[in-house]
Each structure stands twice: as structure tokens, then as C-alpha cells.
Amino acid sequence: MKGIGRKSANMIVGLAYSKPAVIVDTHMIRVSNRIGLTKNEDPDKIELDIKRTVPEKMWTALSLLVILHGRYACKAKNPECLKCLLQNDCDYWLGGKGNV
Q1: What CATH number is attached to the domain comprising 55?
Q2: Is 99 a member of any domain?
Q3: What domain count does the chain have?
Q4: Is 65 a member of any domain?
Q5: H-state helical runs in 1-100
């Protein structure tokens, strides 16, 4: 789509057209790195990493859940690791960064 970025285009594809799409925003970048879905910071590379490891039918739902998790729990500055249900699967927590 001319005039919009990849994130917005993927959001439209996933939500308006109900087609599988990986939506990569700042929350997806942070959370997917913390839980080990990727080691990349580049949105295009993160999208490819997720597409390689997550079944296509789950791309949009996973994206939305990760974005919400990043917005309300796995925050950039003060993640709420003690309340998080993903502790056992989180590289950030298991690496001792979330034990503060």
C-alpha cells in the first residue's frame, strides 16, 4: 500500500482482510527478543524469524498478543516480570535481568 509503512500494512492485512500477518512494532521488537523468538532488532528480520518459527495461522493473533503484553506487562523500562506468566519461557527473566 502506497504511503504507509510495513507495520500498518500488515495490521490492515491481518485485521481488515483476516489474512495472516506479522505486525512488528516497538513492543514486538522488545518482547520477541526477551522471550527468544528472535535475536534481531531489524523489523524485517524479526518478521522473517517469526514466520519461520510460528505457524502461519497464528501470526496475527500472536502479533496482537505480544504487542499488548509489551504495552501492559513487559514494559521497556519497568517490566512486570514478577507478575508475568511467561517467566519460564523468557530469556530476559531467566538471564536474571528481570529479577530486580
Answers
A1: 1.10.1670.10
A2: no
A3: 1
A4: yes
A5: 6-15, 26-34, 43-53, 59-72, 91-94
**Within-domain flag for 100:** no
Q: Is the CB of residue 27 less than 8 Å from the CB of residue 9?
A: no
- 23-62: per-residue pLDDT in tens? 999 999 999 999 999 999 999 999 999 999 999 999 999 9
pTM, two decimal places: 0.92
86 φ, ψ to 5°? -100, 10
AA identity, residue 33: N
Instruction: Show the domain range for 78.
Output: 6-94
96: left (phi over 0), alpha (psi -120 to 50) or beta: left
Cα separations in angstroms, 55 against 36, 51, 68: 16, 7, 20
